[in-house]
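TL;DR need structure tokens for one chain.
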Amino acid sequence: IIPININLNGDKKKQTLTASLEANANNYITPIDIKNVLDKNTIFKTVIDFKGDRLKIKDTGFFIKTIEQDSENPEKTITKYEEIVDIDGTITKLNTQNPNINLIKIKIPNSLNMTVCAFPSSQLTADGHLLIFGDLLAPRIRGELNVWDLSIPELMITMDKAIAKFESKNLDINIKNLIANGSDYNILMNADL
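>> reply
TL;DR here they are.
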């Protein structure tokens, strides 16, 4: 059982939605195992404020959750959250035909070491950051996502590094030293978004 908590409160001017999904070493759902969080309590949580035609996303992301004894008040505990993936931002003009993303930030502050669950011998490392802004239906994106040291022995695949670089309406992908079943590839791609 994975505990899910959803709470909505407020008045006619402002409403706040808080939601969380908690996992531990025995209860989780994922297509990838993130080694950084193995055997730790984790939580996906979000706080979203609705006010007029504005939506504000804050305190949102994927975190390692720890509970410690309060040194000043031993009968109380302190809950701490260590960022794994952090998301925050604002969307405005919700009551119009053209809602606008003022700015949404997505960041992975530290490298994540992972395994693809379907391939137990696999491994890869990833990090990145994205800024999303502009028209909600056709947003602009800046930032990059990086994957390196990919190895999937079950499929005879290795890769040194892949970089997906977002520059407004363009996406550049650079894959270095991809070896698939003995064939060596270096791939450069560019796409309009």
